[in-house]
C-alpha cells in the first residue's frame, strides 16, 4: 500500500470504489466552552481563526468556532441552552470528537451507498446555500456516538460552510507546521473491534491494512488489540483499538470508563519537520508523554541511520520506528481534556506507512506511568 496525502499530485481515485473520499474535511468536537477551546488550539497548536456560527449568524442553539492550519480544520461547538443533545453529549463524554467529516464528490450518493449497506443514518442529505454557492452534507453513525458527515463542496467557494461568517479576531498565533490529519484512532469496547472492522469494509469499502494483537501491544500489565482500516487512496486511515485482558486496567479500558463508551482516542496530525513543530508546541505549553532516556541508547541499533540528530529527539521525547518502506517520527501529547480520554499525535513520515509498532511498548509504559499517577491503572 502506498501512503498518499492530499498534497501529492496525481493521486487517482480508485475505480469501483464504493465511496471515493478526497480527504478529511473537518473534525468537530463538542466541548463545554468552544470560545476558549478555539483559543487554546490557536495559542498552543498554531491554528488560525477561520469561521464562526452562533447567535450573530442566526444560529440559536449552539456556537461554533472553526480554526485551520494547512489542511486541518477543527470545529469547536458548545450548546447555548440546557437540555440540548450537545449538552447531553458533553455531560456523558466530556469534551470529545463528535464528527469526523469526509470530503466527497457526491454526498447524496455516499449517504445512499452507506445506508443501503447497513449504516445508521445521522443526517439525510441537506443542501445549504449562501452567496458563495452550495454545500451538500449527509451523515452516518460509526462507533459510539461518533458520526461521519459527508461533505460535498465542489460548488462552494466560501470560507467553511454556508451559515458561517469570517472569524477574524485581532489575535493570531504563528503556525506550527501541522499539515493534515494522518489518521484518527477509535477505542471500542471489548469484543467490538471486528464489528467495526466489518462496518468499514462493508459499509465504506475500506480495507484492513494492518493488524496488531495483544502480543504486539502489551506491557507487563496491560494489552490491547488494533486493526487499521484504510480507504482506497490511503488518505483516510482509521485504526480501531479494543482492550485485551491484562493484569491491570489498560489505557483503552481507562478511556472507555471515562469517556463512558467508545469514541475517538487520538487524532494524528502530520508535519514535515517534527523537531521544529514539537519544539514550538512544547514552548507554548503542550505536554507530551516521555519515554525513559534508555530508549535513545538503543534507538539507532533498532531503526538504523536516520537524517535527524539524536540529541533533539532525546530532548523532546520524539519516538522513531522503521518499516519496510522507510521510517517515521512520532510523539504523543498527554490527554488534552479534564477526563483522561483524548490526545493528539504529531507524526512525520519519511517513507514509512505504518504506525510505530516498535514504539508501542515504550509508549504504553509511558501511558501507564500517567495512569499510575491518576490511580486508574
Ligand atoms: Fe496514531
Can you walk through the features of this model?
The structure is a single chain. With 377 residues, the protein is an alpha+beta fold. The protein has two domains: 23-166, 2,3-Dihydroxybiphenyl 1,2-Dioxygenase, domain 1 (Roll); 181-374, 2,3-Dihydroxybiphenyl 1,2-Dioxygenase, domain 1, CATH 3.10.180. Helix content is 24%, strand content 34%. It contains ten helices and 17 strands. The chain has helices spanning 34-45, 85-93, 107-116, 193-202, 251-259, 274-283, 294-297, 299-303, 310-316, 360-374; strands at residues 23-30, 48-53, 62-69, 72-79, 96-104, 121-130, 133-141, 147-152, 165-166, 178-187, 207-212, 223-230, 237-244, 263-271, 319-323, 326-332, 343-350. The strands form two sheets. A nine-stranded mixed beta sheet has the order 6-7-8-5-1-4-3-2-9. An eight-stranded mixed beta sheet has the order 11-12-13-10-14-17-16-15, sandwiched between helices. The structure holds fe (ii) ion. Fe (ii) ion (FE2) binds at residues 183, 185, 266, 268, 345, 355.
Amino acid at each position: 500500500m502506498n501512503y498518499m496525502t492530499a498534497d501529492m499530485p496525481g493521486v487517482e481515485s480508485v475505480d469501483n470504489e464504493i465511496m471515493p473520499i478526497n480527504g478529511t474535511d473537518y473534525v468537530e468536537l463538542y466541548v463545554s466552552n468552544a470560545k476558549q477551546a478555539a483559543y487554546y488550539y490557536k495559542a498552543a497548536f498554531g491554528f488560525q481563526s477561520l469561521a464562526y456560527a452562533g447567535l450573530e449568524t442566526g444560529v440559536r442553539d449552539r456556537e461554533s468556532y472553526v480554526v485551520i492550519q494547512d489542511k486541518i480544520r477543527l470545529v469547536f461547538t458548545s450548546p447555548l441552552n440546557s437540555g440540548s443533545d450537545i449538552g447531553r453529549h458533553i455531560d456523558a463524554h466530556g469534551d470529545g470528537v463528535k464528527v469526523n467529516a469526509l470530503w466527497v464528490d457526491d454526498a447524496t450518493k455516499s449517504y445512499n451507498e452507506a445506508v443501503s449497506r447497513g449504516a445508521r443514518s445521522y443526517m439525510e442529505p441537506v443542501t445549504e446555500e449562501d452567496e458563495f454557492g452550495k454545500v451538500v452534507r449527509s451523515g452516518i453513525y460509526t462507533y459510539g456516538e461518533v458520526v461521519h458527515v459527508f461533505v460535498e463542496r465542489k460548488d462552494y467557494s466560501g470560507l467553511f460552510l454556508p451559515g458561517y461568517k469570517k472569524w477574524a479576531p485581532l489575535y493570531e498565533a504563528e503556525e506550527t507546521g501541522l499539515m493534515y490529519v494522518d489518521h484518527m484512532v477509535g477505542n471500542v469496547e471489548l469484543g467490538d473491534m471486528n464489528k467495526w472492522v466489518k462496518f468499514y469494509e462493508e459499509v465504506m469499502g475500506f480495507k484492513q491494512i494492518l493488524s496488531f494483537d495483544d502480543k504486539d501491544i502489551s506491557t507487563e500489565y496491560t494489552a490491547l488489540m488494533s486493526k487499521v482500516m484504510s480507504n482506497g487512496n490511503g488518505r483516510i486511515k482509521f485504526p480501531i483499538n479494543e482492550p485485551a485482558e491484562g493484569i491491570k486496567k489498560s489505557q483503552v479500558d481507562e478511556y472507555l470508563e471515562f469517556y463512558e463508551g467508545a469514541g475517538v482516542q487520538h487524532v494524528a496530525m502530520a508535519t514535515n519537520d517534527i523537531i521544529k513543530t514539537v519544539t514550538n508546541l512544547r514552548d507554548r505549553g503542550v505536554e507530551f508523554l516521555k519515554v525513559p532516556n534508555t530508549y535513545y541508547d538503543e534507538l539507532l541499533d533498532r531503526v538504523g541511520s536516520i537524517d535527524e540528530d539524536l540529541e533533539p529527539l532525546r530532548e523532546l521525547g520524539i519516538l522513531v520506528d522503521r518499516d519496510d518502506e522507510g521510517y517515521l517520527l512520532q510523539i504523543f501529547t498527554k490527554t488534552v481534556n479534564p477526563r483522561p480520554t483524548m490526545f493528539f499525535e504529531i507524526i512525520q513520515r519519511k517513507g514509512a506507512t505504518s504506525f510505530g509498532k516498535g514504539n508501542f511498548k515504550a509508549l504504553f509504559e509511558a501511558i501507564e506511568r500517567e495512569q499510575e499517577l491518576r490511580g486508574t491503572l
